[in-house]
């Protein structure tokens, strides 16, 4: 069940805040991978996300050099071929989501914003699939994991609920710093990343 929120109905500001909040839930996945693999610098991603949050605060005049930021980000992208453990995939999703957001801020393209939503959702979907395969002893079960089983997994339900709740909140909220703080608090209140990793 792909997630299809009508992000184009939100203002540019709201779409940006939505993506930033989703990235807050994804970032710990990169931090954990980076530590385990001794690859990349999570601070680069953290700083870029903070800069985008700051841009949403009209009192702060933040200028972003997109090309320079994208270049910095590219250096942090792991190559899945180079790592033989699962953590590389969510880490890659974080980088791709942040890249999509930076490109969206340049192009103002709703599809680029929607990519962030999809990447967060896909990260969870892939992880849940692996969990379900591990839980079943039969190797053939990989083929028989149904969409229903995926959708009914608590992590998957939580991901969908979080994205919907965030969307509904931002749709009505004023475009200010307080809304940013509330959106951030909303997605981090469980103290877990979107994969259920403790932050």
Automatic annotation (TrEMBL):
InterPro entries: DUF416, YP001051499.1-like_dom_sf
Stored Gene3D superfamilies: YP_001051499.1 domain like
Pfam families: DUF416
Protein name, as recorded: DUF416 family protein
């Amino acid at each position: 069940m792909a997630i299809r929120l009508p992000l184009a109905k939100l203002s540019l500001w709201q779409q940006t805040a939505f993506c930033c909040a989703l990235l807050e839930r994804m970032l710990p996945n990169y931090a954990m991978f980076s530590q385990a693999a001794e690859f990349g610098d999570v601070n680069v991603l953290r700083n870029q996300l903070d800069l985008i949050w700051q841009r949403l605060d009209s009192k702060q005049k933040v200028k972003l050099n997109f090309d320079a930021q994208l270049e910095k980000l590219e250096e942090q992208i792991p190559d899945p071929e180079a790592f033989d453990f699962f953590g590389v995939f969510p880490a890659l999703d974080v980088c791709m989501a942040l890249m999509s957001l930076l490109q969206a801020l340049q192009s103002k393209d709703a599809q680029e914003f929607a990519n962030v939503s999809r990447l967060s959702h896909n990260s969870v979907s892939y992880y849940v699939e692996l969990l379900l395969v591990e839980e079943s002893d039969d190797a053939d079960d990989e083929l028989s994991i149904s969409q229903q089983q995926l959708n009914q997994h608590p992590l998957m339900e939580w991901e969908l609920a979080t994205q919907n709740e965030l969307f509904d909140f931002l749709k009505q909220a004023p475009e200010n710093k307080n809304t940013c703080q509330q959106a951030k608090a909303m997605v981090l209140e469980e103290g877990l990343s979107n994969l259920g990793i403790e932050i």
